[in-house]
Request: fold
Amino acid sequence: MSTIQVAYPKVVSRADWLAARKKLLSKEKELTHLRDALSAERRQLPWVKVEKDYVFDSPGGKKTLAALFDGRSQLVVYHFMFGPDWKEGCPSCSMAADHFDGSILHLAQRDVTLIAISRAPLPQIEAFQKRMGWRFQWVSSYANDFNRDYRVSFTKDEVAKGNIYNFDTTGFPSDEAPGLSVFHKDAAGNIFHTYSTYGRGLEELLGPYIFLDRVPKGRDESAMSPHPMAWVRHHDRYSPNYFAEPAESAARANSSAAGCCAEHS
Reply:
């Protein structure tokens, strides 16, 4: 267990604490309203018609992109980092995926299907998914250009060049990257790409951070190396009373899938 101590801020009376808390509350409400406005603006983005006929490998056989909607009009795709030559999926993507099964039923009530897509061949995906105990739909794009077209898989030359990720605004240390893309299918069967996000745009999917941002130590990642999320493990790799120290995290992260949890703004 970590021996890091919390630096106590000013200790005050309950009345003074309440006054400070109300001042912070006004900022929290402002952020909430800004987030609502941003969400509305996000939904007003123009759409792009999907012209390619993508076919994926699924446990039930070949499936088109249209079939992945599963009878609904809205499809959310999590681009799960899991390359063809990887032994297991990315730990931070796995943290996000730990929340998927509980969300699927709720999303279905709002006409939304949530799936994961990776470039790893289907047998590798199925083995890892079984190990992790997940049930959500997860298909392979190994035989198509889906990952490259939605900018979550890159060639070695592209990685070396830099500025390939997050709408060509930054580099990425791996040939696989995380992301989230949204699609709509109309009554005529036309499919449109409506939204994608990458890097820290995915942070809202990481449930533990919602809690960590509210505790005294916060995320406590400043000393982590080689990147802030170096402490993250697959949920079956933590031990009882486990706490990732910076040195141990660096060694573990350097031996895992190449930089898969690196932070990118």
